[in-house]
Amino acid sequence: MPWIQLKINATQSTAEPIGDLLMDLGAQAVTFLDRHDTPVFEPKPGETRLWGDTDVQGLYPADTDMQPILTILRDAQMLSEHNYRLDQLEDKDWEREWMKNFKPMQFGERLWICPSWLPVPDPNAVNVHLDPGLAFGTGTHPTTALCLEWLEGLDLSDKTVVDFGCGSGILAIAALKLGAKRVVGIDIDPQALQSSHDNATRNGVAEQLELYLPADQPRDFKADVVVANILAGPLKELCDVICGYLKPQGQLALSGILNEQAEAVSNVYQEQIHLDPVTSCEDWCRISGIAKFS
């Protein structure tokens, strides 16, 4: 069973109320993570010790409609436009299992995603060396695989690309390795931007990859290709933002979408995008197409 993880950046005063509200709103689990690796000391009896800058994570079944939950959090002034992130997760302990299960994987004819600690199967292929750390994206999840296969099938020579929700940087780096000349990666999580930078450096493409938090992203940048692997709710909510990155006749791919959510997401994008047939992998799918505007 797949899951949705809601991560909210909080403060010492807001973290515990956010966690309580997430539980009230049906979270299967809530955890608190220190964003600065500050040691946790044993709390006094009856005391909950939280960090000054804390990520609160709530875990929900993947078929949960997250929009009402996000609305309640906004109304309670616990959520703003740029302080949260939604990710799709497999039904396993990601941080413990990914190294064991992460092996070299081929996408299309040319592209291989290879763990940085293992030798590449084909030195003549387009090889992306990856160490995702705690950021999302190795290629093992169906949504990432769908996006990698789509990118591998494009002619990216001399193209510009936006990776919206870049995570580990896997899609951005793959695009550069496949011939793109410039990629802009955007993510709400500073840890993801650091992971993307580290992986880009490992692959020798750091100078071509620009990384931004949403508040700092370039406002006038238009790309030939945009890929957004996030979740259905944010994809619908951010349709105009995502399509706004496209040049006329630019190519778009969206993933992080459950099969049963495809129609709803397609309905939001069909006014601006000539849509291709939906492509599915296990419980998830990819929506792609070409911008209608010229």
UniProtKB/TrEMBL annotation:
Binding residues annotated for S-adenosyl-L-methionine, in chain numbering: 144, 165, 187, 229
SUPFAM superfamilies: S-adenosyl-L-methionine-dependent methyltransferases (SSF53335)
Top EC group: transferase
GO terms (BP aspect): methylation
Gene Ontology molecular functions: protein-lysine N-methyltransferase activity
GO CC annotations on file: cytosol; ribosome
Catalytic activity, as annotated: L-lysyl-[protein] + 3 S-adenosyl-L-methionine = N(6),N(6),N(6)-trimethyl-L-lysyl-[protein] + 3 S-adenosyl-L-homocysteine + 3 H(+)
EC number from the UniProt entry: 2.1.1.-
Compartments, record wording: Cytoplasm
Pfam families with a match to the protein in the record: PrmA
Role noted for this protein: Methylates ribosomal protein L11.
PANTHER family: ELECTRON TRANSFER FLAVOPROTEIN BETA SUBUNIT LYSINE METHYLTRANSFERASE (PTHR43648)
Listed HAMAP family: Methyltr_PrmA
Protein name, UniProt field: Ribosomal protein L11 methyltransferase
Species this chain originates from: Celerinatantimonas diazotrophica
Organism lineage: Bacteria, Pseudomonadati, Pseudomonadota, Gammaproteobacteria, Celerinatantimonadaceae
